[in-house]
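On clarity, I found the account of how folds are encoded harder to follow than it need be. For illustration, here is how one protein appears when written out as sequence plus structure tokens.
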Amino acid sequence: MDRETFREALDAADRAAPVPASPNRLAPARQVGEHVGMAGSTGARLPLQGGLPPGEALTGAVREIACDESGFSGTNLLDPATPVIVHASVDLGRDEAAELIRTLRSGFRFSPDEVKSRQFLRRREAAEAVQWFLSALRGRAHVHLVDKEFFLATRVVDLLLAEPSYAAGTRLAGDPRPAAAALHRAGRAAGPDWAAFLAAVVEMLRTKRRDRADDRSVERFFAARDVLRRHVGDTRAGAILDALDPARVAAVQARLYAGDRTIPPPLEPLLPALAETVLHWSAGRRRVLVIHDEQSALTEDRLRRLQAALAASDPAGPSPLAGLVMTDSRDDPRVQAADLLAGVARRMPGDGPLRPLLSPPGANAAAVPAEQEAT
């Protein structure tokens, strides 16, 4: 299909598509599970794991969004192939999302189940199709980027210098954010010693399936800190490194070994990314019900703790996180759209057509420092 024919197909689909609902559309009261169907599925599937479905019908102002991520690498946060994790969300109805996916398929030959960004971006018409896709989502979607190196810098400040909290790594953490940004900037300027320091951070915080009796990771962490400190001239960053105390760091690690669930999973950037997504759509005025592709990191216990941390931002009202329902992306075109958006966002610069969908610089500073926003 040549470019002109493809453009005509998109224009025809635009004319045939229903008029999108207002971006301020609110979800009506509904019963839990009403929106999670298995239509079109064939064969038995394993039950979906995790999530936090609301315990009763939701009333009042509730925004329902569909989410997915791209760049998830587990605890391997220093994988050079995936330096960023993207959490994308869309505010679309099922019919709107299905029409969006059908329009994209009119110009490409995709799987009958899902459209994937890797296939999407390899096509010769990709640039034009991406431009159309992102324009169609403007005002109806949100992208939150998390630079994984910066996330580790926030963990040094939020977990090792302050009392660990599920608000860590989000705008709710408040004062620690500029400190983490200073550490990140100074560290990157220090060269290879910064990479060695971050590797020591990951090793020290990764306590699962490890023999504590032979664990000298705290000692190695401080050895890496000392080497990095010699190459950090920034006063604020130097003060952060100097403030790290061996006894306190060892105590935090001991709590992780003991399975202290009040500490958020230290190497899991998806939870603060989800928190920022909820805060964006809530806007301080409404609750948010999240429909999410199945993700092992989003356990019920973690989501309850995150829900409570978000509620603390407004003690007078309920938590902005109304609940999170897992679904299979093959069954929900909204999640397919979010998945495609996340994959596109991870593979393209943030200074072009993607920028209107990104978190504002002020809200996103903890996730992507100013010098990294376009990565």
The longest strand covers residues 62-70.
